[in-house]
Amino acid sequence: MKDTDILSAYQSAKERYAALGVDTDLALEKLEKISLSLHCWQADDVTGFEAQGESLSGGIQVTGNYPGRARNVDELREDILKASSLIGGKHRLNLHEIYGEFGGKKVDRDEVLPEHFEGWMQWADEHGMYLDFNSTSFSHPKSGDMTLSHPNDDIRNFWIRHTKACRAIAEEMGKRQGDPCMMNLWIHDGSKEVPVNRLRYRKILEESLDDIFSIKYENMKDCIEAKLFGIGLENYTVGSYDFYLGYGAKKGKIVTLDTGHFHLTESIADKVSSLLLFTPEIMLHVSRPVRWDSDHVVTMTDDLLDLAREIVRSDALERVHIGLDYFDATINRIGAYVIGCRATQKAFLQALLEPQLLLNQYEDSGKYFQRLAVQEELKSMPWQAVWDMFCMKMNVPVGESYILEIEKYEQTVTSKRV
Ligand code: RNT
Ligand code: ZN
């Protein structure tokens, strides 16, 4: 597309939106400020760099075997930079503990230190990227079915030490980058059949968390992520949504909403306003559940649009952190990042282009036909002309032209990884 065509399409879109009282220039400015936290694990199928490298466990699964997976830290960094170059704006990188640089040595999970992430911190600084972090309960000989809720002291204490070590790393990252590091805590603890004593494990988990969080930090923020079920752990999840919602509300922790971790007819968008009243902030793991938490690449679905609108309508962009979480190994992995990030941005752009004043006026005066009519018309408003303008301004490929870039990268880089 020619620049002049993009500009003239934008100009007429701008006028159409202005008629509804929407400032498209302002929407573009706001979109530019939305940072997504890119999950590092899409690049290598959640493998990580531990010397002992166990296979993926913890009730999560990657399907597919598309060639070109990142096999080491350099390849992973190269892929992240390639993906970022095709996504407008400044974004963050979300690391898991198993992505530390351990120098080929066995560093057990409870021995991990900030120095194992020194390379990442320097790299992120060079590229103007902020880091987020995650403890890793899965893919380890001590993972089993239970970690922080394990009744056995040795196993539980091992994972408590691990999680504490991770918080210290997140603190260091946050301090160095001058922006809080969001540290996500997700554990897979659960069981295949219903335990006779459901309460017991939840009590243990509460105690473990209290112990872990007893150390106060300034530069990191704790997020706790619930789940519906894991593969092989279908009947009981210790850290269910009720559990973490209760814990977060009572103890002022941030609840992570992974959009793939709920019953399929549940609305994640509808949770936002309640959480904002009772918990400090919200962390999102944007995913796309297909029949279960199957971690499909995020696309611009109605659910995602609804979620983005809800956040914008609640004026909560400052309080909601947007991370992505999926792992698809059936297609080009860099393409998977780019599709998911751009889809998320498109959803937020459309939310930012809503005529909030007008819609609220209609609502306040009981003009529900008018409210519905405008919402319906918005679906066919020229938001994509505004999106093209965003990409042009951000100097990233407009429209589908990023496909070619990814094909080139595949030919010259990822296809050579054999
Ligand atoms: C798993 C959770 C969790 C993981 C990552 C790898 O169901 O969604 O966030 O996907 O930590
Ligand atoms: Zn998640």
The CATH homologous superfamily is called Divalent-metal-dependent TIM barrel enzymes
> How large is the count of helical segments?
14
- Unreliable stretches, pLDDT < 50, 5 or more residues? none
Q: Using the coordinates shown, work out and report the CATH topology.
A: TIM Barrel
Number of strands: 12
The N- to C-terminal Cα distance equals: 36 Å
User: What top-tier CATH class fits best?
Assistant: Alpha Beta
Strand percentage: 5-15%
Helix residue percentage: 40-55%
Radius of gyration: 22 Å
Summarize the topology:
Blueprint: H1 3-19, H2 24-33, E1 36-39, H3 73-84, E2 92-96, H4 118-126, E3 131-134, H5 153-177, E4 181-185, E5 190-191, H6 198-213, E6 220-225, E7 236-237, H7 241-251, E8 254-258, H8 269-278, E9 282-286, E10 288-290, E11 292-296, H9 302-313, E12 320-324, H10 333-352, H11 356-364, H12 368-378, H13 383-393, H14 402-412
Parallel strand pairs: 1-2, 1-12, 2-3, 3-4, 4-6, 6-8, 8-9, 9-12
Antiparallel strand pairs: 5-7, 10-11
Helix pairs in contact: 1-13, 2-10, 2-13, 3-10, 5-6, 8-9, 9-10, 11-12
Bound molecules: L-rhamnitol (RNT) and zinc ion.
The site of L-rhamnitol has 11 residues, from loops.
